[in-house]
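Query structure, 276 tokens:
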């Protein structure tokens, strides 16, 4: 499979940017969108690294002062060291499990129907978590990322490991996991943004090294297009989501996941769509 055409590069860049930080699974949407567009295979997975990098850079840009302060204060500022420590602790579980089992998970589950099933199951977890936090508002212990302990970070990291199952959603697992473990919706969302940086960098670097033989200079124009489109759409999504979570819950995203997942399952079993 060669580089994507312009329409595919733009479409997948938008899909990645708009879904990476929402609890609806960017990987799941990319698998389904790629299948619909006929852009699948190893080369398509390398293209996903480019657009995921664009989304990750959007977080770095939006929180550049926060990351800059943390880096500058590592040697002197306890809060900066705790922030870096928490990111490292939360990063390790998914990284270790992904390294050990990632190949097997991709072979078994990186297909539209298993993704659709994960969409529905994840939605039920979101509905349960939101109902639980509303029924027990006193369960919120942490309202700011800076107040997190390493134990809080480890719990969120363990939740992120469930996102190795495509369709679960990395952001959904970390946000909802954080809420279940006592973080406020806003704190869980912001920590999910921050955790995306080491997670996506490590996953991208590993995949890029593993599939480096597939790359060529001919890929640069369309890869760059997808990267830029993903960056812009992710930046807009991040700014919108922070405003959204201050006043709303994630229930609408859960119902979206249910409808979307059931539609994919129905189309597959009815023969309406021949999913690759």
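Result returned for the query:
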């Amino acid at each position: 499979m060669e580089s994507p055409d312009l329409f595919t590069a733009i479409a997948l860049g938008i899909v990645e940017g708009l879904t990476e930080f929402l609890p609806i699974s960017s990987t799941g949407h990319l698998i389904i969108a790629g299948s619909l567009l006929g852009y699948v295979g190893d080369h398509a997975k390398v293209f996903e690294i480019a657009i995921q990098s664009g989304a990750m850079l959007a977080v770095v840009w939006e929180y550049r002062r926060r990351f800059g302060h943390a880096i500058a204060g590592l040697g002197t500022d306890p809060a900066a060291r705790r922030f870096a420590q928490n990111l490292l602790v939360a990063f390790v579980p998914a990284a270790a499990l992904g390294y050990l089992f990632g190949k097997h998970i991709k072979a078994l589950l990186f297909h539209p129907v298993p993704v659709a099933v994960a969409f529905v199951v994840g939605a039920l977890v979101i509905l349960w978590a939101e109902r639980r936090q509303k029924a027990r508002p006193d369960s919120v212990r942490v309202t700011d990322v800076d107040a997190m302990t390493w134990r809080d970070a480890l719990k969120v990291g363990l939740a992120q490991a469930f996102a190795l199952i495509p369709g679960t959603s990395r952001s959904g697992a970390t946000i909802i996991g954080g809420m279940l473990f006592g973080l406020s919706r806003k704190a869980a969302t912001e920590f999910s943004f921050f955790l995306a940086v080491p997670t996506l960098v490590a996953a991208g670097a590993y995949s890029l090294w593993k599939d480096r033989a597939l790359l060529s200079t001919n890929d640069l124009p369309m890869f760059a297009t997808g990267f830029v489109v993903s960056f812009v759409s992710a930046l807009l999504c991040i700014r919108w989501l922070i405003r959204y979570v201050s006043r709303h819950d994630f229930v609408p995203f859960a119902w979206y996941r249910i409808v979307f997942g059931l539609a994919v399952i129905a189309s597959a079993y009815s023969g309406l769509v021949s999913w690759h």
